[in-house]
Amino acid sequence: MGQPRVIVVTGASSGMGAATVKRLHAQGDRVIGIDLAEAEIIADLGIPEGRRHAISEVARLSGGAIDGLVTFAGLGGLPDRAGSLLVSVNFFGTVALLEGLRPLLVEGNSPSAIAIASNSMTCQPGVPTDVVERCLEDDEEGARRAADLAGSIQSYPASKLAIARWVRRHAPLPAWAGAGIALNAIAPGAVETPLLEATRDDPLLGPLLEAFPVPLGRNGTPDELAGVVAFLLGDDARYFCGSVLVVDGGTEASLRSDDLPSPLG
């Protein structure tokens, strides 16, 4: 048998991240988890020094090569949460890890990177496009200002839309596809995690959440999302490049059935 794969998972201590760690361990993979607590690497991805610390520690613990990266770390949009914090963690923390760990992925075996978006990016109305634009311009201060004006409830889908577009733009490039790295994104819908529980408990957001259509009639489970991650990290998914997999029980298809596929021109 060969050496076990080395997979980095951010947001590793709870929810979908924890389920993914468990799934990968069961497959025999070695996992380097990153989170604010209860992980191999303790780091705050909302600040530059935390991102740098995470990247340097992954390099140290991995010996300079990793085979996969999954970026679950993120915050939900809640009325009492600053939009600036949300974009710094959700978008800039994600992109910093993708870019900072890319050289280690190049050294890995059949490497894959998976960023976590959200179906809210296309199912929630009123996404502030200026937040998306500042994110994609790599203007963190500008994005933080715009996100504070928009509020975290609206900035959440903006941060996730920016992630999906970043993945779509970068996945086909020489630095990613050309280097043999499969870069894709997953857009979960309502999945039973602490983030969803906090949203459900909010007096403003809870009723809106319950009103959202889920044609399959239930919310997803972290284990189901972990299964999708395991597939994308595996050999059977090597032809995926720049894909955004919506895993939401049919919500987006129900709300936007004719929007995709969209013909060119």
Automatic annotation (TrEMBL):
<dbReference type="InterPro" id="IPR036291">
    <property type="entry name" value="NAD(P)-bd_dom_sf"/>
</dbReference>
<comment type="similarity">
    <text>Belongs to the short-chain dehydrogenases/reductases (SDR) family.</text>
</comment>
<dbReference type="GO" id="GO:0016616">
    <property type="term" value="F:oxidoreductase activity, acting on the CH-OH group of donors, NAD or NADP as acceptor"/>
</dbReference>
<dbReference type="Pfam" id="PF13561">
    <property type="entry name" value="adh_short_C2"/>
</dbReference>
<protein>
    <submittedName>
        <fullName>Unannotated protein</fullName>
    </submittedName>
</protein>
<dbReference type="InterPro" id="IPR002347">
    <property type="entry name" value="SDR_fam"/>
</dbReference>
<dbReference type="Pfam" id="PF00106">
    <property type="entry name" value="adh_short"/>
</dbReference>
